[in-house]
Amino acid sequence: MKKTTVSFIVISLFITALLTGCGGLPNEAKDKAEKVPTDINAVFKKVEAKEAQFTLMQSSVDWKIFEQYAKRENWQNNFAEAHQYCAKAKSVYEQKVIPIIKRNKEEDVSTLFVHIGTIKKLLRQAEGAANTPFRRKAVLEQASKNSQKWVKDAKENVASIDALLAVAQKKTIKAKADAKKYGWSKSDKDFDGAIGPLKIKKEQAHELFHVAESESKKGTNADLALLADSVNDIKNILLSLQKKQPDFLAKIDQLYHSYSKILEDMRIENYVKIGRASWDDSSDWNTTKEVFITSKQVSEEVLEFFSTKSEIGTFYAGLFGSGGFKLQANITQKYWDALGINPKQNWPSNSHNMAEYWVEDVILIAFHKYIIVQDGVEKKTDWVRVDEDFYWENEQNLGMTIVSKPYGMYESEVVKQAMPAGMNCIATPRVAADGSVSGSNQYGEWKKDTSTGSYFWSAFAGSAVANMLFGGNTYYYNDWNTWNKNYRGKKAYYGNDDQYGTYGYHTYRSGSRYNQGYYAKANPESVRKSRTERVSTKNNVNRSHATNRSQKVSVRGAGPANRGRGASGKGGK
Protein backbone atom coordinates (compact mmCIF):
# COMPACT_ATOMS: atom_id res chain seq x y z
CA MET A 1 0.00 0.00 0.00
CA LYS A 2 1.98 3.02 -1.32
CA LYS A 3 1.28 6.65 -0.60
CA THR A 4 3.14 9.74 -1.75
CA THR A 5 4.59 12.15 0.81
CA VAL A 6 5.37 15.06 -1.57
CA SER A 7 2.35 17.18 -0.59
CA PHE A 8 3.04 16.61 3.08
CA ILE A 9 6.66 17.71 2.65
CA VAL A 10 5.40 20.91 1.02
CA ILE A 11 3.11 21.51 4.02
CA SER A 12 6.05 20.92 6.34
CA LEU A 13 8.16 23.52 4.54
CA PHE A 14 5.24 25.98 4.63
CA ILE A 15 4.84 25.55 8.39
CA THR A 16 8.57 26.00 8.94
CA ALA A 17 8.40 29.31 7.11
CA LEU A 18 5.28 30.33 9.01
CA LEU A 19 6.88 29.70 12.39
CA THR A 20 10.14 31.49 11.61
CA GLY A 21 10.34 34.82 13.35
CA CYS A 22 6.80 34.70 14.70
CA GLY A 23 5.75 35.50 18.25
CA GLY A 24 2.91 33.96 20.20
CA LEU A 25 3.62 30.27 20.73
CA PRO A 26 6.71 29.49 22.87
CA ASN A 27 9.83 28.30 21.04
CA GLU A 28 9.53 24.84 22.58
CA ALA A 29 6.04 24.45 21.13
CA LYS A 30 7.18 25.74 17.75
CA ASP A 31 10.09 23.28 17.68
CA LYS A 32 7.83 20.34 18.51
CA ALA A 33 5.26 21.37 15.91
CA GLU A 34 7.93 21.82 13.26
CA LYS A 35 9.27 18.31 13.94
CA VAL A 36 5.91 16.51 13.61
CA PRO A 37 5.79 16.23 9.77
CA THR A 38 9.30 14.76 9.80
CA ASP A 39 8.26 12.21 12.44
CA ILE A 40 5.16 11.19 10.47
CA ASN A 41 7.14 10.72 7.26
CA ALA A 42 9.81 8.72 9.10
CA VAL A 43 7.26 6.29 10.52
CA PHE A 44 5.51 6.07 7.15
CA LYS A 45 8.82 4.99 5.58
CA LYS A 46 9.41 2.45 8.36
CA VAL A 47 6.00 0.92 7.71
CA GLU A 48 6.75 0.68 3.98
CA ALA A 49 10.12 -0.93 4.73
CA LYS A 50 8.53 -3.47 7.08
CA GLU A 51 5.89 -4.30 4.48
CA ALA A 52 8.61 -4.92 1.89
CA GLN A 53 10.51 -7.05 4.38
CA PHE A 54 7.35 -9.10 4.99
CA THR A 55 6.92 -9.69 1.26
CA LEU A 56 10.52 -10.90 1.07
CA MET A 57 10.04 -13.14 4.12
CA GLN A 58 7.28 -15.05 2.32
CA SER A 59 9.82 -16.37 -0.19
CA SER A 60 12.14 -17.76 2.51
CA VAL A 61 12.80 -21.49 2.96
CA ASP A 62 11.00 -21.82 6.32
CA TRP A 63 7.93 -19.79 5.33
CA LYS A 64 5.86 -22.92 4.76
CA ILE A 65 5.89 -23.56 8.55
CA PHE A 66 4.38 -20.16 9.28
CA GLU A 67 2.18 -19.66 6.23
CA GLN A 68 -0.87 -21.29 7.83
CA TYR A 69 -0.63 -18.98 10.84
CA ALA A 70 -0.08 -15.90 8.67
CA LYS A 71 -3.26 -16.67 6.71
CA ARG A 72 -5.31 -17.64 9.75
CA GLU A 73 -4.32 -14.54 11.72
CA ASN A 74 -4.19 -12.26 8.64
CA TRP A 75 -0.70 -10.90 9.25
CA GLN A 76 -0.88 -8.87 6.05
CA ASN A 77 -3.69 -6.75 7.50
CA ASN A 78 -1.32 -5.32 10.12
CA PHE A 79 0.30 -3.18 7.44
CA ALA A 80 -3.06 -1.80 6.35
CA GLU A 81 -3.69 -0.86 9.99
CA ALA A 82 -0.25 0.74 10.22
CA HIS A 83 -0.98 2.91 7.17
CA GLN A 84 -4.32 3.90 8.69
CA TYR A 85 -2.59 5.04 11.89
CA CYS A 86 -0.18 7.15 9.81
CA ALA A 87 -3.08 8.65 7.89
CA LYS A 88 -4.87 9.53 11.14
CA ALA A 89 -1.70 11.16 12.47
CA LYS A 90 -1.42 13.22 9.27
CA SER A 91 -5.10 14.20 9.55
CA VAL A 92 -4.70 15.36 13.16
CA TYR A 93 -1.73 17.45 12.13
CA GLU A 94 -3.49 19.09 9.20
CA GLN A 95 -6.86 19.63 10.89
CA LYS A 96 -5.81 20.39 14.47
CA VAL A 97 -2.17 21.46 14.64
CA ILE A 98 -1.86 23.66 11.55
CA PRO A 99 -4.81 25.94 12.55
CA ILE A 100 -3.21 26.46 15.97
CA ILE A 101 0.12 27.30 14.35
CA LYS A 102 -1.56 29.79 12.05
CA ARG A 103 -3.31 31.48 15.00
CA ASN A 104 0.03 31.55 16.84
CA LYS A 105 -1.57 32.36 20.22
CA GLU A 106 0.22 31.56 23.46
CA GLU A 107 -3.02 30.41 25.12
CA ASP A 108 -3.24 27.53 22.59
CA VAL A 109 0.00 25.90 23.74
CA SER A 110 -1.59 23.29 26.03
CA THR A 111 -4.07 22.26 23.31
CA LEU A 112 -1.20 22.06 20.83
CA PHE A 113 0.71 19.66 23.08
CA VAL A 114 -2.40 17.49 23.49
CA HIS A 115 -2.69 17.10 19.71
CA ILE A 116 1.03 16.41 19.35
CA GLY A 117 0.67 13.74 22.04
CA THR A 118 -2.19 12.16 20.07
CA ILE A 119 -0.03 12.10 16.95
CA LYS A 120 2.85 10.42 18.82
CA LYS A 121 0.48 7.75 20.12
CA LEU A 122 -0.82 7.05 16.61
CA LEU A 123 2.73 6.74 15.30
CA ARG A 124 3.62 4.27 18.07
CA GLN A 125 0.55 2.23 17.14
CA ALA A 126 1.60 2.31 13.47
CA GLU A 127 5.07 0.98 14.26
CA GLY A 128 3.60 -1.63 16.59
CA ALA A 129 1.20 -2.89 13.93
CA ALA A 130 3.98 -3.09 11.31
CA ASN A 131 6.17 -5.11 13.71
CA THR A 132 3.41 -7.54 14.74
CA PRO A 133 4.01 -10.20 12.02
CA PHE A 134 7.71 -10.37 12.90
CA ARG A 135 7.08 -10.59 16.63
CA ARG A 136 4.46 -13.26 16.07
CA LYS A 137 6.81 -15.31 13.87
CA ALA A 138 9.52 -15.10 16.56
CA VAL A 139 7.09 -16.39 19.22
CA LEU A 140 6.06 -19.34 17.06
CA GLU A 141 9.71 -20.18 16.37
CA GLN A 142 10.38 -20.27 20.12
CA ALA A 143 7.29 -22.43 20.65
CA SER A 144 8.63 -24.93 18.13
CA LYS A 145 12.07 -25.07 19.73
CA ASN A 146 11.07 -24.91 23.44
CA SER A 147 7.66 -26.56 23.65
CA GLN A 148 8.69 -29.02 26.38
CA LYS A 149 10.19 -26.32 28.59
CA TRP A 150 7.20 -24.04 28.03
CA VAL A 151 4.79 -26.76 29.10
CA LYS A 152 6.92 -27.50 32.17
CA ASP A 153 6.88 -23.80 33.13
CA ALA A 154 3.14 -23.67 32.53
CA LYS A 155 2.64 -26.65 34.86
CA GLU A 156 4.57 -24.83 37.60
CA ASN A 157 2.47 -21.72 37.02
CA VAL A 158 -0.72 -23.76 37.35
CA ALA A 159 0.59 -25.19 40.63
CA SER A 160 1.21 -21.64 41.87
CA ILE A 161 -2.34 -20.72 40.87
CA ASP A 162 -3.68 -23.71 42.81
CA ALA A 163 -1.69 -22.67 45.88
CA LEU A 164 -3.07 -19.13 45.76
CA LEU A 165 -6.62 -20.46 45.50
CA ALA A 166 -6.07 -22.93 48.34
CA VAL A 167 -5.22 -20.09 50.73
CA ALA A 168 -8.23 -18.08 49.58
CA GLN A 169 -10.56 -21.07 49.93
CA LYS A 170 -9.28 -21.86 53.43
CA LYS A 171 -9.95 -18.27 54.46
CA THR A 172 -13.43 -18.45 52.92
CA ILE A 173 -14.33 -21.66 54.76
CA LYS A 174 -13.36 -20.08 58.09
CA ALA A 175 -15.32 -16.91 57.32
CA LYS A 176 -18.42 -18.97 56.51
CA ALA A 177 -18.17 -20.76 59.85
CA ASP A 178 -17.61 -17.53 61.78
CA ALA A 179 -20.55 -15.86 60.04
CA LYS A 180 -22.82 -18.58 61.40
CA LYS A 181 -21.14 -18.55 64.81
CA TYR A 182 -21.34 -14.79 65.37
CA GLY A 183 -24.55 -14.00 63.52
CA TRP A 184 -22.98 -11.99 60.72
CA SER A 185 -25.29 -11.03 57.90
CA LYS A 186 -23.06 -12.69 55.28
CA SER A 187 -24.37 -15.98 53.83
CA ASP A 188 -22.51 -18.86 52.17
CA LYS A 189 -23.79 -17.51 48.87
CA ASP A 190 -22.13 -14.14 49.58
CA PHE A 191 -18.76 -15.79 50.19
CA ASP A 192 -19.10 -18.06 47.17
CA GLY A 193 -19.84 -15.03 45.04
CA ALA A 194 -16.74 -13.25 46.35
CA ILE A 195 -14.33 -16.10 45.65
CA GLY A 196 -16.10 -17.14 42.45
CA PRO A 197 -14.02 -15.02 40.02
CA LEU A 198 -10.79 -16.45 41.48
CA LYS A 199 -12.06 -20.02 41.08
CA ILE A 200 -13.02 -19.30 37.47
CA LYS A 201 -9.45 -18.14 36.79
CA LYS A 202 -8.13 -21.38 38.26
CA GLU A 203 -10.45 -23.47 36.08
CA GLN A 204 -9.40 -21.51 33.00
CA ALA A 205 -5.73 -22.13 33.80
CA HIS A 206 -6.31 -25.89 34.03
CA GLU A 207 -8.18 -25.92 30.72
CA LEU A 208 -5.41 -23.94 29.04
CA PHE A 209 -2.76 -26.26 30.41
CA HIS A 210 -4.62 -29.25 29.02
CA VAL A 211 -4.55 -27.60 25.58
CA ALA A 212 -0.85 -26.72 25.81
CA GLU A 213 0.13 -30.19 27.00
CA SER A 214 -1.93 -31.86 24.26
CA GLU A 215 -0.37 -29.73 21.51
CA SER A 216 3.12 -30.34 22.85
CA LYS A 217 2.64 -34.10 22.54
CA LYS A 218 1.80 -33.78 18.83
CA GLY A 219 5.42 -32.95 17.96
CA THR A 220 5.77 -31.49 14.46
CA ASN A 221 1.98 -31.55 14.06
CA ALA A 222 1.46 -29.24 17.04
CA ASP A 223 -0.53 -26.05 16.58
CA LEU A 224 2.23 -23.66 17.62
CA ALA A 225 -0.13 -20.69 17.94
CA LEU A 226 -2.47 -22.60 20.23
CA LEU A 227 0.46 -23.84 22.31
CA ALA A 228 2.09 -20.42 22.62
CA ASP A 229 -1.16 -18.59 23.41
CA SER A 230 -2.23 -21.13 26.04
CA VAL A 231 1.10 -20.93 27.85
CA ASN A 232 1.04 -17.12 27.72
CA ASP A 233 -2.56 -16.96 28.98
CA ILE A 234 -1.63 -19.17 31.96
CA LYS A 235 1.21 -16.79 32.80
CA ASN A 236 -1.17 -13.82 32.64
CA ILE A 237 -3.70 -15.58 34.88
CA LEU A 238 -0.98 -16.16 37.48
CA LEU A 239 0.06 -12.50 37.34
CA SER A 240 -3.57 -11.46 37.73
CA LEU A 241 -4.16 -13.75 40.73
CA GLN A 242 -0.94 -12.60 42.39
CA LYS A 243 -2.56 -9.16 42.49
CA LYS A 244 -6.17 -10.14 43.18
CA GLN A 245 -5.66 -12.85 45.83
CA PRO A 246 -4.03 -10.52 48.42
CA ASP A 247 -6.86 -8.04 47.87
CA PHE A 248 -9.38 -10.84 48.44
CA LEU A 249 -7.66 -11.95 51.65
CA ALA A 250 -7.49 -8.35 52.89
CA LYS A 251 -11.20 -7.94 52.25
CA ILE A 252 -12.00 -11.10 54.23
CA ASP A 253 -9.82 -9.76 57.05
CA GLN A 254 -12.04 -6.68 57.19
CA LEU A 255 -14.81 -8.89 58.59
CA TYR A 256 -12.72 -9.48 61.71
CA HIS A 257 -12.32 -5.82 62.55
CA SER A 258 -14.86 -3.53 64.16
CA TYR A 259 -14.95 0.13 65.03
CA SER A 260 -17.53 2.63 66.17
CA LYS A 261 -17.23 6.34 66.81
CA ILE A 262 -19.71 7.81 69.29
CA LEU A 263 -20.09 11.58 69.69
CA GLU A 264 -19.57 12.05 73.43
CA ASP A 265 -19.43 15.85 73.62
CA MET A 266 -19.16 18.95 71.46
CA ARG A 267 -18.49 22.63 71.76
CA ILE A 268 -18.09 25.77 69.69
CA GLU A 269 -15.73 28.65 70.38
CA ASN A 270 -17.01 31.95 68.96
CA TYR A 271 -14.85 34.91 68.00
CA VAL A 272 -15.41 38.16 66.13
CA LYS A 273 -12.68 39.63 63.93
CA ILE A 274 -12.76 43.42 63.73
CA GLY A 275 -11.09 45.34 60.93
CA ARG A 276 -9.70 48.82 61.48
CA ALA A 277 -8.36 51.36 59.00
CA SER A 278 -6.53 54.36 60.50
CA TRP A 279 -4.83 57.32 58.89
CA ASP A 280 -3.39 60.81 59.41
CA ASP A 281 -6.14 63.17 58.31
CA SER A 282 -3.75 66.14 58.10
CA SER A 283 -1.49 64.43 55.58
CA ASP A 284 -1.78 64.99 51.84
CA TRP A 285 -0.59 61.42 51.31
CA ASN A 286 -2.44 58.17 51.72
CA THR A 287 -1.31 56.99 55.14
CA THR A 288 -4.02 54.37 55.62
CA LYS A 289 -3.06 51.23 57.57
CA GLU A 290 -5.35 48.27 58.11
CA VAL A 291 -5.23 46.14 61.25
CA PHE A 292 -7.34 43.10 62.13
CA ILE A 293 -8.07 42.27 65.76
CA THR A 294 -9.74 39.08 66.98
CA SER A 295 -11.95 39.31 70.04
CA LYS A 296 -11.83 37.14 73.10
CA GLN A 297 -14.18 34.16 73.08
CA VAL A 298 -17.78 35.40 72.99
CA SER A 299 -21.22 33.96 73.52
CA GLU A 300 -23.53 32.74 70.77
CA GLU A 301 -25.69 35.81 71.35
CA VAL A 302 -22.78 38.20 70.75
CA LEU A 303 -21.66 36.25 67.69
CA GLU A 304 -25.10 36.38 66.12
CA PHE A 305 -25.39 40.10 66.87
CA PHE A 306 -22.20 40.93 64.99
CA SER A 307 -22.86 38.43 62.19
CA THR A 308 -25.57 40.81 60.90
CA LYS A 309 -23.53 44.03 61.27
CA SER A 310 -21.00 45.75 59.04
CA GLU A 311 -19.88 49.21 60.23
CA ILE A 312 -18.92 49.30 63.92
CA GLY A 313 -17.74 52.81 64.68
CA THR A 314 -15.20 55.55 64.13
CA PHE A 315 -12.34 57.20 65.94
CA TYR A 316 -11.36 60.88 65.85
CA ALA A 317 -8.59 62.21 68.03
CA GLY A 318 -10.08 65.71 68.24
CA LEU A 319 -8.48 68.79 69.73
CA PHE A 320 -7.14 68.65 73.27
CA GLY A 321 -8.53 65.11 73.70
CA SER A 322 -12.07 66.11 72.78
CA GLY A 323 -12.51 63.21 70.36
CA GLY A 324 -12.41 59.47 70.88
CA PHE A 325 -13.97 56.18 69.83
CA LYS A 326 -17.64 56.37 68.85
CA LEU A 327 -19.92 53.42 68.10
CA GLN A 328 -22.49 53.40 65.33
CA ALA A 329 -26.05 54.00 66.51
CA ASN A 330 -27.03 50.36 65.91
CA ILE A 331 -24.13 48.93 67.95
CA THR A 332 -25.01 48.39 71.61
CA GLN A 333 -22.24 49.15 74.11
CA LYS A 334 -22.64 45.86 75.96
CA TYR A 335 -21.97 43.88 72.78
CA TRP A 336 -18.87 45.91 72.02
CA ASP A 337 -17.61 45.44 75.56
CA ALA A 338 -18.13 41.69 75.21
CA LEU A 339 -15.45 41.62 72.52
CA GLY A 340 -12.75 42.75 74.93
CA ILE A 341 -11.05 44.84 72.25
CA ASN A 342 -9.16 48.08 72.89
CA PRO A 343 -10.04 50.46 69.99
CA LYS A 344 -6.42 51.65 69.85
CA GLN A 345 -4.87 48.19 70.13
CA ASN A 346 -1.79 47.89 67.86
CA TRP A 347 -2.15 51.54 66.82
CA PRO A 348 0.30 52.00 63.92
CA SER A 349 1.39 55.62 64.44
CA ASN A 350 0.92 58.53 66.83
CA SER A 351 0.20 60.72 63.79
CA HIS A 352 -2.94 58.72 62.95
CA ASN A 353 -5.90 60.70 64.22
CA MET A 354 -8.84 59.03 62.44
CA ALA A 355 -10.07 55.47 62.06
CA GLU A 356 -12.99 53.34 60.94
CA TYR A 357 -14.00 49.95 62.38
CA TRP A 358 -15.99 47.16 60.78
CA VAL A 359 -16.84 43.47 61.18
CA GLU A 360 -14.35 41.57 59.07
CA ASP A 361 -15.54 38.10 60.01
CA VAL A 362 -17.20 35.99 62.65
CA ILE A 363 -15.25 32.87 63.52
CA LEU A 364 -16.52 29.56 64.83
CA ILE A 365 -14.01 26.94 65.97
CA ALA A 366 -15.66 23.56 66.48
CA PHE A 367 -14.57 20.66 68.69
CA HIS A 368 -15.74 17.10 69.31
CA LYS A 369 -15.00 14.45 71.90
CA TYR A 370 -15.43 10.84 70.87
CA ILE A 371 -15.78 7.42 72.37
CA ILE A 372 -14.04 5.03 70.00
CA VAL A 373 -14.52 1.28 70.29
CA GLN A 374 -12.14 -0.59 68.00
CA ASP A 375 -11.70 -4.36 67.94
CA GLY A 376 -13.03 -4.72 71.46
CA VAL A 377 -10.92 -1.92 72.94
CA GLU A 378 -12.48 1.38 73.93
CA LYS A 379 -10.88 4.76 74.36
CA LYS A 380 -12.02 8.32 74.85
CA THR A 381 -10.47 11.16 72.93
CA ASP A 382 -9.69 14.63 74.18
CA TRP A 383 -11.16 17.60 72.34
CA VAL A 384 -10.61 17.20 68.60
CA ARG A 385 -10.95 20.20 66.31
CA VAL A 386 -13.37 19.48 63.46
CA ASP A 387 -14.50 21.23 60.33
CA GLU A 388 -17.34 23.64 61.05
CA ASP A 389 -19.60 22.09 58.40
CA PHE A 390 -18.99 18.67 59.93
CA TYR A 391 -19.90 20.07 63.34
CA TRP A 392 -23.27 21.33 62.11
CA GLU A 393 -23.91 18.12 60.22
CA ASN A 394 -23.63 16.32 63.56
CA GLU A 395 -25.02 18.99 65.88
CA GLN A 396 -28.10 16.85 66.54
CA ASN A 397 -26.12 13.66 67.15
CA LEU A 398 -24.81 13.89 70.72
CA GLY A 399 -24.61 10.40 72.21
CA MET A 400 -25.08 8.83 68.80
CA THR A 401 -22.84 6.54 66.77
CA ILE A 402 -21.78 8.65 63.80
CA VAL A 403 -19.45 6.11 62.12
CA SER A 404 -19.71 2.36 62.49
CA LYS A 405 -18.34 -0.84 60.98
CA PRO A 406 -19.21 -3.86 63.09
CA TYR A 407 -17.67 -7.30 62.85
CA GLY A 408 -18.89 -9.20 59.82
CA MET A 409 -19.05 -6.13 57.57
CA TYR A 410 -16.71 -4.90 54.85
CA GLU A 411 -15.19 -1.42 54.80
CA SER A 412 -17.47 -0.61 51.88
CA GLU A 413 -20.41 -1.18 54.24
CA VAL A 414 -19.36 1.42 56.80
CA VAL A 415 -22.42 3.32 58.02
CA LYS A 416 -21.89 7.08 58.34
CA GLN A 417 -25.49 8.06 59.00
CA ALA A 418 -26.05 8.74 62.71
CA MET A 419 -27.86 6.11 64.75
CA PRO A 420 -28.47 5.37 68.45
CA ALA A 421 -25.21 4.22 70.00
CA GLY A 422 -24.26 0.70 68.96
CA MET A 423 -27.34 -0.07 66.88
CA ASN A 424 -25.21 -1.10 63.92
CA CYS A 425 -23.44 -3.67 66.12
CA ILE A 426 -26.59 -5.64 66.96
CA ALA A 427 -26.68 -9.13 65.46
CA THR A 428 -29.06 -9.48 62.53
CA PRO A 429 -31.99 -11.32 64.14
CA ARG A 430 -33.44 -14.59 62.92
CA VAL A 431 -37.23 -14.37 62.97
CA ALA A 432 -39.03 -17.71 63.18
CA ALA A 433 -42.46 -18.48 61.73
CA ASP A 434 -44.02 -18.03 65.17
CA GLY A 435 -42.52 -14.52 65.43
CA SER A 436 -39.80 -15.44 67.92
CA VAL A 437 -36.50 -13.61 67.53
CA SER A 438 -33.02 -15.06 68.13
CA GLY A 439 -29.39 -14.40 67.32
CA SER A 440 -26.14 -13.34 68.97
CA ASN A 441 -22.68 -12.00 68.27
CA GLN A 442 -19.58 -10.85 70.17
CA TYR A 443 -21.52 -8.09 71.93
CA GLY A 444 -24.76 -9.66 73.09
CA GLU A 445 -27.90 -11.58 72.16
CA TRP A 446 -31.60 -11.23 71.48
CA LYS A 447 -33.84 -12.00 74.48
CA LYS A 448 -37.54 -12.04 75.23
CA ASP A 449 -39.08 -9.68 77.76
CA THR A 450 -41.32 -12.13 79.62
CA SER A 451 -43.48 -9.35 81.03
CA THR A 452 -44.40 -7.86 77.64
CA GLY A 453 -43.57 -10.62 75.19
CA SER A 454 -41.37 -8.22 73.22
CA TYR A 455 -37.86 -9.09 72.08
CA PHE A 456 -34.92 -6.83 72.95
CA TRP A 457 -31.17 -6.73 72.49
CA SER A 458 -29.23 -7.65 75.61
CA ALA A 459 -25.55 -6.73 75.84
CA PHE A 460 -23.45 -9.36 77.59
CA ALA A 461 -23.34 -8.72 81.32
CA GLY A 462 -20.05 -7.47 82.67
CA SER A 463 -18.73 -6.37 79.28
CA ALA A 464 -17.34 -2.88 79.69
CA VAL A 465 -16.89 -2.57 75.94
CA ALA A 466 -20.49 -3.57 75.22
CA ASN A 467 -21.73 -1.13 77.84
CA MET A 468 -19.65 1.65 76.31
CA LEU A 469 -20.74 0.70 72.81
CA PHE A 470 -24.48 0.65 73.51
CA GLY A 471 -24.41 3.42 76.11
CA GLY A 472 -26.80 1.58 78.42
CA ASN A 473 -29.59 1.86 75.83
CA THR A 474 -32.20 -0.87 75.45
CA TYR A 475 -33.24 -1.59 71.88
CA TYR A 476 -36.35 -3.59 71.04
CA TYR A 477 -36.79 -5.54 67.83
CA ASN A 478 -39.18 -2.90 66.53
CA ASP A 479 -36.49 -0.21 66.98
CA TRP A 480 -33.88 -2.25 65.14
CA ASN A 481 -36.25 -3.31 62.37
CA THR A 482 -37.36 0.28 61.70
CA TRP A 483 -33.75 1.45 61.51
CA ASN A 484 -32.64 -1.50 59.35
CA LYS A 485 -35.46 -1.16 56.81
CA ASN A 486 -35.94 2.58 56.55
CA TYR A 487 -32.79 4.34 57.76
CA ARG A 488 -29.70 2.14 57.56
CA GLY A 489 -27.21 3.69 55.15
CA LYS A 490 -29.80 6.28 54.09
CA LYS A 491 -30.40 8.87 56.80
CA ALA A 492 -30.00 9.55 60.51
CA TYR A 493 -32.28 7.66 62.91
CA TYR A 494 -33.22 9.16 66.29
CA GLY A 495 -35.53 6.39 67.49
CA ASN A 496 -39.21 5.75 66.85
CA ASP A 497 -40.05 8.44 69.42
CA ASP A 498 -37.18 10.79 68.49
CA GLN A 499 -35.72 9.97 71.90
CA TYR A 500 -32.02 9.85 70.98
CA GLY A 501 -29.47 12.48 70.01
CA THR A 502 -28.82 16.03 71.18
CA TYR A 503 -32.53 16.86 71.54
CA GLY A 504 -33.77 13.44 72.62
CA TYR A 505 -35.13 12.97 76.14
CA HIS A 506 -33.37 9.60 76.51
CA THR A 507 -29.95 11.22 76.12
CA TYR A 508 -30.29 13.10 79.41
CA ARG A 509 -31.98 10.39 81.45
CA SER A 510 -30.97 9.98 85.08
CA GLY A 511 -27.39 8.76 85.39
CA SER A 512 -26.50 9.51 81.78
CA ARG A 513 -22.90 10.56 81.21
CA TYR A 514 -24.12 13.27 78.84
CA ASN A 515 -25.63 15.25 81.73
CA GLN A 516 -22.14 16.22 82.88
CA GLY A 517 -20.71 17.08 79.48
CA TYR A 518 -19.65 20.48 78.23
CA TYR A 519 -22.61 20.70 75.87
CA ALA A 520 -25.18 20.02 78.58
CA LYS A 521 -23.64 22.61 80.90
CA ALA A 522 -23.36 25.22 78.14
CA ASN A 523 -26.94 24.66 76.94
CA PRO A 524 -29.02 24.06 80.08
CA GLU A 525 -32.27 25.28 78.52
CA SER A 526 -32.04 22.84 75.61
CA VAL A 527 -31.26 20.02 78.02
CA ARG A 528 -34.19 20.99 80.24
CA LYS A 529 -36.58 20.94 77.30
CA SER A 530 -35.23 17.60 76.11
CA ARG A 531 -35.75 16.08 79.57
CA THR A 532 -39.23 17.43 80.18
CA GLU A 533 -40.86 17.88 76.79
CA ARG A 534 -41.25 14.39 75.39
CA VAL A 535 -41.69 14.71 71.63
CA SER A 536 -43.76 12.71 69.21
CA THR A 537 -42.72 14.16 65.85
CA LYS A 538 -39.52 13.97 63.86
CA ASN A 539 -39.34 17.76 63.46
CA ASN A 540 -39.63 19.03 67.00
CA VAL A 541 -38.85 22.54 68.16
CA ASN A 542 -35.38 21.76 69.45
CA ARG A 543 -34.24 20.11 66.23
CA SER A 544 -35.67 23.00 64.22
CA HIS A 545 -33.69 25.38 66.43
CA ALA A 546 -30.49 23.54 65.54
CA THR A 547 -31.17 23.94 61.83
CA ASN A 548 -32.01 27.63 62.19
CA ARG A 549 -28.91 28.21 64.29
CA SER A 550 -26.59 26.92 61.60
CA GLN A 551 -28.35 29.02 58.98
CA LYS A 552 -28.08 32.22 60.99
CA VAL A 553 -24.31 32.14 61.25
CA SER A 554 -23.99 31.50 57.54
CA VAL A 555 -24.16 35.27 56.94
CA ARG A 556 -20.84 35.83 58.70
CA GLY A 557 -17.84 37.03 56.80
CA ALA A 558 -19.88 39.14 54.38
CA GLY A 559 -18.37 42.36 55.72
CA PRO A 560 -19.73 45.82 54.99
CA ALA A 561 -20.84 46.60 51.47
CA ASN A 562 -19.01 49.95 51.44
CA ARG A 563 -16.33 51.35 53.69
CA GLY A 564 -15.08 54.90 53.33
CA ARG A 565 -11.57 54.13 54.52
CA GLY A 566 -8.78 56.52 53.64
CA ALA A 567 -7.78 60.10 54.11
CA SER A 568 -11.22 61.60 53.55
CA GLY A 569 -10.76 62.07 49.85
CA LYS A 570 -7.05 62.81 50.10
CA GLY A 571 -6.01 59.83 48.02
CA GLY A 572 -2.41 58.89 47.58
CA LYS A 573 -0.40 60.99 45.19
Description:
By secondary structure, this protein is α+β, with helices and mostly antiparallel strands. Among the domains are: 6-145, no CATH class; 147-256, no CATH class. Helix content is 49%, strand content 16%. It is built from 16 helices and 14 strands. The strands form 3 sheets. Strands 1, 2, 3, 4, 5, 6, 7, 8 and 9 form a 9-stranded antiparallel beta sheet that branches. Strands 12-13-14 form a 3-stranded antiparallel beta sheet. It has a two-stranded antiparallel ribbon with strand order 10-11. Helix 5 crosses helix 8 (224-254). The longest helix is centred in the N-terminal third of the chain and has 37 residues, at 109-145.
* Main β-sheet description: 9 strands, antiparallel
Number of strands: 14
Number of helices: 16
Q: How far do the termini sit from each other?
A: 76 Å
Keywords for this entry:
flat; three-stranded antiparallel beta sheet; disordered C terminus; 573 residues; single chain
Short summary:
49% of the residues lie in helices and 16% in strands.
SSE layout:
Blueprint: H1 6-19, H2 27-57, H3 63-73, H4 77-103, H5 109-145, H6 147-182, H7 188-216, H8 224-254, E1 259-279, E2 289-294, H9 300-307, E3 311-316, E4 324-327, H10 333-339, E5 354-374, E6 377-380, E7 384-386, H11 388-393, E8 400-405, E9 419-420, E10 430-431, E11 437-438, E12 444-448, E13 455-459, H12 464-470, E14 475-476, H13 477-487, H14 518-522, H15 524-532, H16 541-552
